[in-house]
Specification:
76 residues; alpha+beta; Ubiquitin-like (UB roll); 2 helices; 25% helix; 26% strand; globular; nucleotide binding; Beta-grasp_dom_sf; ThiS/MoaD-like
């Protein structure tokens, strides 16, 4: 299982702080597709960190990884 963390607007959109999905062996891109379908949200522009390190969409996930999705932040 992969532990998934949601922050800011994604936390509000999913109504979850975190969840676990069976995604070991999948890429970050495949995980994003699973989540977007599951919650009817978009992760376009969201930064992705795996085990507290920013990563790209081609990273392959391992059992018990923690993936954090951090949406773009605007301020003023």
């Amino acid at each position: 299982m992969i532990n998934i963390l949601y922050f800011a607007s994604l936390k509000e959109a999913t109504k979850l702080d975190s969840e676990q999905l069976d995604a070991a062996g999948k890429t970050v891109s495949e995980l994003k597709a699973m989540i977007m379908e599951r919650h009817a949200i978009t992760l376009d522009g969201a930064m992705t960190a795996v085990n507290e390190e920013f990563t790209d969409e081609g990273t392959v996930l391992n059992e018990r990884d923690t993936v954090a999705f951090i949406p773009p932040v605007s301020g003023g």
